[in-house]
């Protein structure tokens, strides 16, 4: 059965914690037989020889054989797709991913390697590694933010930042992600131990996927700096992991180019900041023109080289949200309302306070572009 990384994580939590009911079942499945001490002892020797080998010449320099008490499965071998791979890119969707395959391809996936780590203590645990390479750094970082933000409010994210010394990384209760350059590593912790509780899974995940993610992040090639548009976002008051990155289409505007959207919170105030860094002033003017075509407001004087108020509608069925957009040289920045701050959980009295006024948006833009 093929499943995506999120689906694998869900299967761990459902199958091990017993918190989900199987589809079409009429009763709880019988518990697995207990593992004998002799079997555990035999399995504990699995990493004694240094673990298995990544026989894929492209990924082998980036993949540690042993990390955090886990080793590459001596009985396994890498599954490779795309450039110099055993399988074609078309087979990624049929034999590797069940969901979001088109998203990976849209962001420029050109190579995928699947590997498995096993627990060197003999416990029936493993870590599944999916190492994706994209044609551009923009595409790889966009897929990372897609994974951690997942088109939802990052303030409610199930993952938290993971320090790796470079690039960007995140860890959840049963998985971890690491981005650097044109690569994205996704790791999922899996256990067949029926005694494992969600808390035990989270603890084991922290000593398995987190360690492997750090090792891989340190070995991957490419710069560790964020793409220019993401690096241009203010860091103060930004929600942890609160960046969504788009290689070319963003905010309902097609072909606008690499765009970073940051999510911010200050007390009960919520807003989004948008940054676009272009190669030259003419490119920034073109991006600014695309915003102006959205319509909805007048020019704003005294802010950068050019500024305007525009109503942005990200989705055809979504709301029209007021943004103040400004350009200074080759940088285009914008601040708008936070759509996630309009939910009913805030209460009708709290909704007005959660927005920035037009003057507050302008003040933040002026401070940003100094």
Features:
370 residues, single chain, 2 domains, 25% helix, nine-stranded antiparallel β-sheet
Topology (SSEs and partners):
Elements: H1 5-17, H2 37-43, E1 66-67, E2 70-72, E3 79-82, H3 90-95, H4 101-106, E4 109-119, E5 125-134, H5 137-149, E6 160-161, E7 168-171, E8 175-180, E9 183-191, H6 198-206, H7 209-219, H8 228-231, E10 238-246, E11 259-266, E12 269-277, H9 281-292, E13 306-312, E14 321-328, E15 331-337, H10 358-368
Antiparallel strand pairs: 1-2, 2-4, 3-4, 4-5, 5-9, 6-7, 7-8, 8-9, 10-11, 11-12, 12-15, 13-14, 14-15
Report the helical percentage. 10-25%
Number of domain modules: 2
Q: How many H/I helices?
A: 10
Alpha-carbon Rg, integer: 23 Å
Q: Determine the N-to-C terminus distance.
A: 54 Å
SS strand fraction: 25-35%
Tell me, what's the shape? elongated
Please write the string of helix (H) and strand (E) elements.
HHEEEHHEEHEEEEHHHEEEHEEEH
Count of DSSP E strands? 15
Low-confidence stretches: 1-29, 38-42, 344-353
User: Structural class of the helix and strand makeup?
Assistant: alpha+beta
Round the mean pLDDT to the nearest integer and report it: 87
Largest sheet: 9 strands, antiparallel
How do you describe this structure in short?
The protein has 370 residues and is an alpha+beta fold. It contains ten helices and 15 strands.
Q: Overview of this structure, please?
A:
This protein has 370 residues and is an alpha+beta fold. It has helices at residues 5-17, 37-43, 90-95, 101-106, 137-149, 198-206, 209-219, 228-231, 281-292, 358-368; strands at residues 66-67, 70-72, 79-82, 109-119, 125-134, 160-161, 168-171, 175-180, 183-191, 238-246, 259-266, 269-277, 306-312, 321-328, 331-337. It is built from 10 helices and 15 strands. Mean pLDDT is 87; it is low at 1-29, 38-42 and 344-353. It folds into 2 domains: 5-219, no CATH class; 228-368, Protein Transport Mog1p, Chain A, CATH 3.40.1000.
